[in-house]
TrEMBL record:
SMART domains: HTH_LUXR, REC. Residues 5-125 form the Response regulatory domain. The keyword Transcription applies. PANTHER family: TRANSCRIPTIONAL REGULATORY PROTEIN NARL-RELATED (PTHR43214:SF24), TWO-COMPONENT RESPONSE REGULATOR (PTHR43214). This is DNA-binding response regulator, NarL/FixJ family, contains REC and HTH domains. One of its GO terms (biological process) is phosphorelay signal transduction system.
């Protein structure tokens, strides 16, 4: 993949520098490092990066400034890849951000990122228009949904498959992790597409929509 131009928004200087070094070693250019939401907005508008990595909580209020800034940036440029890397699931704005577009979106929890190469691969996948969402983020948001939501119709195994789809896993990788055949994975995916009412589109697009479908249901 060609080098990406990236803006990092993170109020921890040590973590910010660490991310910049990791991305530089992967061949990417960090064009700006900022520690608050207003600086994030200014940096993106000035440098026009290929991808934004942002925390949820930043100064001055340490609430959901990062997510709110991401929403503003998405409103200005719906195609801008956004990668949220945080300790928190920003309940108030996470749904809105994830609903803002079905493409180029990542949301990982810091303490669950245990492999540098997987992290850089996830960044590159989002920059290329993919979706990578931590299953724990999905679980916490799903816990807020009513039982009559379409997502509640899924079986435990279908949810297992869906959470791995959210991580960007291929059918072959899902089959290996769940110790089932690829044929069985395809069957589960077809079933969950049907239960979520996702028909008449490409499989790639439906995979993205399946991950985000619960966010469009009444909560």
């Amino acid at each position: 993949m060609q080098a990406l131009r990236i803006v990092i928004a993170e109020d921890s200087v040590l973590l910010r520098e660490g991310l910049a070094q990791i991305l530089a070693r992967a061949g990417h250019e960090v064009v700006a490092q900022v520690g608050n939401a207003p600086s994030l907005l200014a940096a993106v508008r000035r440098s026009r990066p290929d991808l934004v990595i942002t925390d949820v909580r930043m100064p001055p209020d340490h609430s959901d400034e990062g997510l709110r800034a991401a929403l503003r940036l998405r409103a200005e440029d719906p195609d801008l890849p956004i990668f949220v890397l945080s300790q928190y699931v920003g309940q108030a704005y996470a749904d809105e951000l994830l609903e803002s577009s079905g493409i180029a979106l990542g949301y990982l929890l810091k303490d669950r990122v245990t492999d540098v190469s997987q992290f850089t691969a996830a960044v590159e996948q989002v920059a290329a228009g993919g979706v990578v969402i931590d299953p724990e983020v999905v679980r916490r948001l799903l816990a807020r949904k009513r039982r009559d939501d379409p997502i509640a119709r899924l079986t435990v195994r279908e949810m297992d498959v869906l959470t791995r789809m959210a991580e960007g896993r291929s059918n072959a990788a899902i089959a290996r992790e769940l110790l089932i055949s690829e044929v069985a994975v395809s069957k589960h995916i077809g079933n969950l597409f049907g239960k979520l009412g996702l028909a008449g589109s490409s499989d790639d697009n439906r995979r993205v929509l399946a991950v985000l479908a619960y966010l469009r249901s009444p909560g």
